[in-house]
Structure formats: C-alpha cells, structure tokens
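Worked example

This section walks through a single chain of length 270. The input is the sequence exactly as stored; nothing has been trimmed or padded.
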Amino acid sequence: MHTIEQKYKTLKEIISKYDSLLVAFSGGVDSALLLKVAHDLLGQKAAGCTAVSSTLPRQEKEASRQVAVEIGAAHFFIEYDELAIPGYAENRGNRCFLCKTELFTHLKKTALEKGFQAVAYGANQDDLKEYRPGMEAAREFQVAAPLLEASMTKEEIRQLSRTLGLSIWDKPAMACLSSRIPYGMEINPRRLAEVEKAELVLKGYGFIQCRVRHHDAIARIELSGDEMIRLFDKSLREKVIADLKEIGFKFVTIDLEGYRPGSLSGHPGR
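Given that input, the structure is written out below as tokens.
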C-alpha cells in the first residue's frame, strides 16, 4: 500500500508530464489540490476555470475566486445556462452526463483558445465507488484525472491539502443545486432558488453538512448525525420551519437517516 507521500510524488510526476494544464475548478478541496499542485509545478501554465450557471450556489463563485487567489494561480470564469441543455431540465437519470458533456465541451474549447495542452478535473479514487455518470463524459472528452491516476482517496486529498496549507482542506462536500431535486421533477429557476435560500438559512444557523431536498411543497432536511441533534431544540426548529415556509415550502421535515449523498437518485453520490 502506498503512503500519502508516495502518492503525492506520483501526482507530481503525472502533472509534470503536461506542458500546460487547465483545471476544471469548482473551488472544492479536490480541484483546489489539483490546481495547487499544477500551479506549483507549471506556474502560469496552469490555470483554474470555473463554470458559472444557475445551478451553482452564488457564494461558491466568490469562494472559488478566493481559493484561486490563495493558491496564486490564474483563474477565470465561463458562463452558460445549464437549463438550456436539451433534456437537462427534464431531470432524467442522464442529467449529470448531459451536464458534464456541456462542461467539458466548453472547457476543451477554452483550452484550445487559450493554448492549454490538456484539461483535468478532480475525480479521485472514492468516486469509483459511487454513481458518477460524469466520469463517462470525461473519458469521452479525454479529460485527465490526475488525482485518480495517483490513486488518491478523499481522505488523503484532505490530509495532503492540509499539509500544503490549503485553507479549505476540510470544506464539506458540495454538489450542484440540481442534485437536491428528485429525478423526474422538472428543474427550474424557482426550485433552484428555493433550495439555495433554504440551505443558506441552515448555514446561517451554523449547520455545516446539510442538504435541503426539494419535494415540491415539502422541504426534506438532511443533516449529519451530530448536527441533527441541534435541530431537535424546539426554539431553533421553530425558527428554521418559519424561515423555510417563508421561502415557499408548505411542509418542513427532518430526515431521520441524516445526510447521505445520492439519497434522491437511488445511487450514492450527492
């Protein structure tokens, strides 16, 4: 079994093979580590590119900019409307594949225009255990996955990020707002906005690992086990209920199974 140090060495060897690299940069810990190492090795021949659309929480756009500044890497945004992707708003089982196909189409075009040799994204070893249709799109577009090639797990990525001084080494996992809406329910700007506002409410009360799943009139709150206990406090619970009803939900529920990625899709993942 390889140590983190050995995997870090392998990661640097993989990235060093590229003359220049454009990183699909969400601002999360995986892509941040990838951008950090690429910048350390390639300097300004490495850059991060963040896709901005209605499914990206607004605070994540600024967060990605701040992390890129912290790293010292070149960084820019591309904007497009995911809801305009044919079939995306219908929210079928291929939604993530459609999304990543659009993303990699734009990133490949951007890389060509700006002179980057290759495009990379932050897939890791743990993603192989989950339902990740976007990985199929990555293979089709020949998008590199250096963290995966180096066999790095999520926990190892966090440990290495901490060692290298990245401030977001322990940032909770994040996914697009569409992942809060069950397959088969239309994705539209109103529902995306309601999810974003509801999760901001929870974060405003100090909850960290949280999801608000949108079931039309029902908001289903998922929290980590330790955080769920807090919401059983009557005073806090009443405030959360009132705030979410003001957003537009008629009913507010707490999922007793707690936060678990992929609870809407039937597959592990988001």
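What to look for: The radius of gyration is 19 Å.
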